[in-house]
Amino acid sequence: MTKEDQLRYSRQTIIPEFGEAGQEKLLASSVLVIGAGGLGAPILQYLTAAGIGRIGIVDFDEVSISNLQRQVLFNTHELGKSKAQTSKQKLSALNPATEFDVHELAINATNAMDLIEPYDLVVDGSDNLATRYLVNDACFLLNKPLIYGAIFRFEGQVSVFNALENGKRGPNYRDLFPTPPPPEMVPSCSEGGVIGVLPGIIGAMMASEAIKVLCQMGTTLSGKLFIFDALDFSTHTLNVPASADNPLSGKHPSITELIDYEAFCMGQVEDKAQAEVTVHQLQHMLEEGNVTLIDVREDYEYEIANLGGELIPLNKVLSRSEEIPTDGNVVVMCKMGGRSQKAIDLLKSKGYKNLKNLKGGIMAWRAEIDPELQSY
Amino acid sequence: MKVTVTAFGIAKDILNKKQTEVEYSGTTVADLRQQLIQEFPEFAKLASLKFAVNTDYVNDDFVLNSNDEVVLIPPVSGG
């Protein structure tokens, strides 16, 4: 360690359990952080400050105003900027000795193995279930420890998956949640909401577990699920045994390579070759007046910007399906194309065959047709 | 027999509150799951959920005791 390092890290190196040896381990280690959002902000800041040698930042998104209530790495002047790039800039100022790899992309089954392979440990701060299963499976297949955290309203979950203990890998996400529930049972932050300070609490816990795993220090949450409810300030720590039926790590593994996680989380295994329309095709259809447009976003999003479609939020599409025609041209839209796809998959179970998804959602419309639309 | 059910996330929405005392006639976690589905039909959508009892995740054949705390934690995806 340099003289400057000794000063910079002195408050942690004087701790007996950590010491200079712990610091040397952090300086020599590399971490991949998936998602530079609510959880990503504290994870990235604390891991950078602690002196991790190399940090990879995976995020394809741009800063939007609805992020700022919880994503405290960004400020109002950075709306529209790349989250991954902006994070790197800020974090480099915090600790110039840390190396950063910016991965401005969405992690998927095609790129996940190559992305994760070069790092010692992965921290998952992503925001959707398909990515959580994907990251879990890839970390298992690559023998990488995974720090897990997820948030909803006032509640946060934390665990450590696949950590090496006594020569054995600990339980993973599929021991906890073997089968994903239907998509409408797993709302995202934009659908379910989240109290702004919660990712700060949960993300900081995730960073702490990452440091402990890297330094082999203390007792981690491997084999346990921690759950915190800020509303009544209650905590539970539950033991999660490794399941013999786990399709990855159980007695008879059926998953030996990455699968189609979108389809898995939609409860369908068949190819989801799905009719899509582009924003330009939709514009033409709207001019011709021969299309019904269904907008499955939430009321508040519709108020911010809309294309005049009929508003039926995703969690109501089944109960209000009689308002959606079963023949003729029907295009389903949301912010970016994910929720509208879910709506179509739900409605397919009711026999709908005439639904098309608006590719890229209202954000694609804004990018390609009407830049005056309010971004959010 | 009476157990306390503590629900998080969407399970809390379905049961309408975080903690409920449930009087039930069965013996195993699978029986309790069926009873919850009967009382709260939407709970069927969380049928695949693993239950934790007191401090441990358990299998469906786990036999409950009076005054056990059953904890329902659905996956959440937010980040």
Automatic annotation (TrEMBL), chain A:
Keywords: ATP-binding, Nucleotide-binding, Nucleotidyltransferase, Transferase. It catalyses: [molybdopterin-synthase sulfur-carrier protein]-C-terminal Gly-Gly + ATP + H(+) = [molybdopterin-synthase sulfur-carrier protein]-C-terminal Gly-Gly-AMP + diphosphate. Its EC number is 2.7.7.80. It comes from the Bacteria. GO terms for cellular component: cytosol. GO terms for molecular function: ATP binding; molybdopterin-synthase adenylyltransferase activity; sulfotransferase activity; thiosulfate-cyanide sulfurtransferase activity; ubiquitin-like modifier activating enzyme activity. InterPro entries: Rhodanese-like_dom (IPR001763), Rhodanese-like_dom_sf (IPR036873), ThiF/MoeB/HesA (IPR045886), ThiF_NAD_FAD-bd (IPR000594), Ubiquitin-activating_enz (IPR035985). It is an enzyme of class 2 (transferase). Residues 287-374 form the Rhodanese domain. The keyword Iron does not apply. This is Molybdopterin-synthase adenylyltransferase. The lineage of its organism: Bacteria, Pseudomonadati, Bacteroidota, Cytophagia, Cytophagales.
UniProtKB/TrEMBL annotation, chain B:
PANTHER family: MOLYBDOPTERIN SYNTHASE SULFUR CARRIER SUBUNIT. It comes from Roseivirga pacifica. Keywords: Nucleotide-binding. One of its GO terms (biological process) is Mo-molybdopterin cofactor biosynthetic process. InterPro entries: Beta-grasp_dom_sf, MOCS2A, Mopterin_synth/thiamin_S_b, ThiS/MoaD-like. It holds the Pfam family ThiS. One of its GO terms (molecular function) is nucleotide binding. This is Molybdopterin synthase sulfur carrier subunit. SUPFAM superfamilies: MoaD/ThiS. GO terms for cellular component: molybdopterin adenylyltransferase complex. Belongs to the MoaD family. The lineage of its organism: Bacteria, Pseudomonadati, Bacteroidota, Cytophagia, Cytophagales.
